[in-house]
Amino acid sequence: MRLLVTGASGLLGLNLALEASKQHEVYGQVNQHLLKTAAFSVKQVDLLAPGAVEQILEQTQPDWVIHCAALANVDACETEPVLAKQLNTKLPEKLAVHVAKGGARLVHISTDAVFDGRIGEYSETDKPNPLSIYARTKLDGERAVLVANPQAIVARVNLFGWSLKGQRSLGEWFFNNLQAGKQIRGFTDVFFCPLLANHLATLLLTMLEKRLSGLYHVVSSDCTSKYAFGMAIARRFGFDEHLISPSSVTDAGLTAVRSPNLTLQTSKISLALGEPPPGLSEGIESFFTLYRDGYPAKIQAMDAAIQ
User: Kind of pairing, strands 41-44 and 25-30?
Assistant: First the structure.
């Protein structure tokens, strides 16, 4: 299959493009962060430019499109709401329209943050209540995509992994600070279901192969607090667990409101694929194995800015 991945320099986009390139012809769209790689074809395009969406679809002629590009910095969305709406709502809607016209299959990446986190254990049928501009624009994007292209897959995700700059995921944040011997805090009152980016990539490709459509929660089958997540990373890498102090998100001084309990049910995706998504221990074990095998250095070497 010929696959177009938007946001291919991002945490999910880069890992997805690399995983998919093992079996498929992959085109990775980037904007500002140019990549140097032989694994897939890199297309530097500003998708907000007039005619850019139509142009890249015409150039790549994809069978599948996985739309990862977004303004994913939650606090940046609060200060740049217009850009957040353009990238997180209007762009996916436009892409969904043109992908449907061309007959390709689309996966649109959304977020668990569409929920307010007051209850947890959310299913796909539960009513969202976004608390931040990021979450609101992502929810609007979900809805616009499914109206424009009912055959699309919308995947609500939460992920960690190794990234281009080595600083994009919570897993990397814990790793970097613990490796440096720094005292850090871990939230005991924020719960989530983080899935390793490489595992998420495999699941998304399988969903396309099975021709699924509609809304799915594609997260780890295990959920945990951010404090416990950090402790698990410390244990696996052999770092000092005492460097992590339990703390509350209310004391963090964050710009955007965070949802405290974003535990999601994965029964729908488990039924569709015949097995549950990988659990947290499997994700952290693979995160460690990738590090041991030199994967972070490999992908950071793809950053054209440091060539």
Answer: parallel
Contact 174, 233 (CB under 8 A): yes
Structural contact between residues 103 and 90, judged by C-beta atoms closer than 8 angstroms: no
Look at the domain 2-306 and name its fold: Rossmann fold (3.40.50)
Mean pLDDT by 10 residues, the chain (307 residues): 98 98 98 94 97 98 98 93 98 98 97 96 98 96 98 98 95 98 96 98 98 98 97 98 94 77 98 98 98 97 81
242-276 in b/e form (b: 16+ CB < 10 A) is ebbeebebeeeeeebbbbbbbbbbbebbeeebeee
Token output for 54: 């139509």
Assess contact for 132 and 77: CB atoms under 8 A: yes
Structure confidence at residue 307 (pLDDT): 53
